[in-house]
């Protein structure tokens, strides 16, 4: 009887676990964007170089999905010529005016929430955390996503516990001194735009698969 009750409780709790929710893509499908303008990234981290690194990773997965992406360096230059130097200010501009300036169908806004490495003696955890938001040229939000990625170096060497500890400490110190954010950022973009549950639908320029 006791085992039966425990089994029932386990089943009940399993049924209460929240499942990932697939977002409604009807607004995106109605807008049917062909071209995407990626504007400079808002940076809430302490790394002043993070926005440029993140900005450079965004065009590839979008192009892989079949969308025309305006060159991000050209976009940044044109916006600066219009007197818009800071990402925070650019994100407050109307999407309609930004899209019209470039002739884009949609504008992608990205915010860096975290871009850091936390050191704890024998382990360093590198974390990136992003908010993505896409708005159509008429000002309608058509897609959004949030992604957090973490990485901690794993020591797979065999040997004495002391030797393994020394190696772990050295690896953690190296990661702390020069954390490699780019692989995490690229993985986050791939999962958000290409592979995730709420990934973008294929765009008009994605090659059709052979039957």
Description:
With 211 residues, this protein is an alpha/beta fold. The protein has a single domain, classed as ABC-type transport auxiliary lipoprotein component (Rossmann fold, 3-Layer(aba) Sandwich), CATH 3.40.50.10610. Helices cover 43% and strands 22% of the residues. The chain is built from nine helices and six strands; from the N terminus they run H-H-E-E-H-H-E-H-H-H-E-E-E-H-H. Strands 1, 2, 3, 4, 5 and 6 form a six-stranded mixed sheet that branches. A hairpin with a 4-residue loop joins strand 5 (124-136) and strand 6 (141-151). Residues 1-19 and 156-178 have low confidence and may be disordered.
Beta strands, count = 6
Number of domains: 1
Supply the CATH superfamily name. Answer: ABC-type transport auxiliary lipoprotein component
Give the helix proportion (percent range): 40-55%
Known CATH architecture: 3-Layer(aba) Sandwich
Principal-axes geometry comes out as globular
Provide the CATH topology: Rossmann fold
Q: Based on helices, strands and strand pairing, what is the structural class?
A: alpha/beta
State Rg.
Answer: 22 Å
């Amino acid at each position: 009887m006791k085992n039966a009750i425990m089994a029932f409780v386990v089943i009940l709790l399993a049924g209460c676990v929240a499942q990932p929710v697939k977002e409604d893509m009807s607004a995106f499908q109605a807008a049917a964007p062909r071209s995407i303008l990626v504007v400079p990234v808002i940076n809430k981290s302490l790394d002043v170089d993070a926005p440029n690194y993140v900005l450079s990773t965004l065009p590839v997965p979008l192009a892989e999905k079949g969308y025309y992406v305006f060159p991000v360096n050209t976009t940044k230059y044109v916006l600066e010529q219009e007197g818009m130097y800071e990402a925070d200010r650019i994100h407050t501009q109307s999407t309609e005016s930004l899209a019209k300036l470039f002739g884009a169908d949609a504008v992608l806004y990205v915010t860096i929430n975290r871009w850091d490495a936390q050191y704890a003696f024998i382990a360093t955890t590198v974390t990136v955390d992003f908010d993505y938001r896409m708005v159509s040229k008429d000002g309608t939000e058509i897609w959004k996503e949030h992604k957090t990625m973490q990485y901690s170096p794993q020591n797979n060497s065999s040997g004495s516990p002391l030797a393994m500890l020394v190696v772990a400490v050295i690896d953690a110190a190296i990661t702390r001194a020069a954390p490699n954010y780019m692989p995490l950022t690229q993985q986050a973009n791939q999962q958000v735009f290409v592979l995730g549950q709420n990934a973008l639908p294929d765009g008009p320029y994605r090659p059709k698969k052979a039957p």
